[in-house]
Amino acid sequence: MKRFQFRELQAATENFSSKNILGKGGFGIVYRGQLPDGSLVAVKRLKDGNAAGGEAQFQTEVEMISLAVHRNLLRLYGFCMTASERLLVYPYMSNGSVALRLKGKPPLDWITRKRIALGAARGLLYLHKQCDPKIIHRDVKAANILLDDCCEAIVGDFGLAKLLDHRESHVKKMHQEKQLDILVDKGLGSKYDRIELEEMVQVALLCTQFLPGHRPKMSEVVRMLEGDGLAETV
Fold first, then answer.
1. Which of 7, 71, 172, 212 has the most CB within a 10 Å radius?
2. PANTHER family from the xrefs (predicted)?
3. Residue 229 pLDDT grade (very low, low, confident, very high; cuts 50, 70, 90)
């Protein structure tokens, strides 16, 4: 893992130009950058860099994130640390996030969406159970699931997340009222499997139950998405 100089990342992002912004989130702003060798990167400039703990703590956390290596996880390429700045450098994902891709054209087909869901689940399973030390994501959302050149799911922003509130959801209400078709992206039309939709919504609801002890393990989620049946009904 490379430690970058701040001036290197300034140059790569054209002094953090607004035209290079890929996205903004709770942790900071992400910029598209190009290194001297021509490779493209995503540079995350963390908010309140001078308040993100001491240098030793930040470096320890960065090293922990870098140890998580899996086909469906965003690899940490490098970092930068100054008295007032904290930055993380990742490979550039040409297809952006799931959140952005769902708004694009042509719409993702049902098979691709299923593959993305399963890939994300496999990445989270690795974080929760297989890497050392284990990392709980706590901020899984469409904006944090990226897509590589082959539209494979790449889970990002792990190791940085904060706890979220858990509230009754619109999805749960639609499930109870048997109106799941309302949840389907209109761009799909009728080109999806109604039974698979029902199963995937049930998996999502199991994962977001209020009591943590009632939620399935990621290994169970992967098995359910692979078609081995639901652990229980919602």
1. 172
2. LEUCINE-RICH REPEAT-CONTAINING PROTEIN DDB_G0281931-RELATED, PROTEIN KINASE DOMAIN-CONTAINING PROTEIN
3. low
Distance between CA atoms of 93 and 66, rounded to whole angstroms? 17
Is 109 an active-site residue? Answer: no
**Residue 89 φ/ψ region, left for φ over 0, alpha for ψ in the -120 to 50 degree band, beta for the rest:** beta
Map tokens 């989130």 to a residue.
Answer: 25
Strands 78-81 and 2-3: parallel
User: Hey, what amino acid is at 221?
Assistant: V
Superfamily of domain 2-91 in CATH is Phosphorylase Kinase; domain 1 (3.30.200.20)
- Using the predicted structure, report yes or no on whether residue 175 has a pLDDT greater than 60: no
**Residues composing the chain:** 234
Q: Give the residue range(s) of CATH 3.30.200.20 domains in the chain.
A: 2-91
Yes or no: say if 46 and 120 are a contact pair by the CB < 8 Å rule. no
The span from the CA of 37 to the CA of 5, in Å, is 16
Which among 13, 42, 52, 12 has a CA at the least distance from the CA of 159? 52
Annotated binding site for ATP: 44
> In this structure, are residues 106 and 31 in contact, taking their beta carbons and an 8 Å threshold?
no
Q: Could you identify the residue written with the tokens 């494979």?
A: 152
**Residues contributing to the annotated binding site:** 44
Mean pLDDT of 20-43: 92
Q: What share of the chain is helix, strand, coil (3-state, %, to 5)?
A: 40, 15, 45
Query: Is it the case that residue 176 has pLDDT exceeding 80?
Result: no
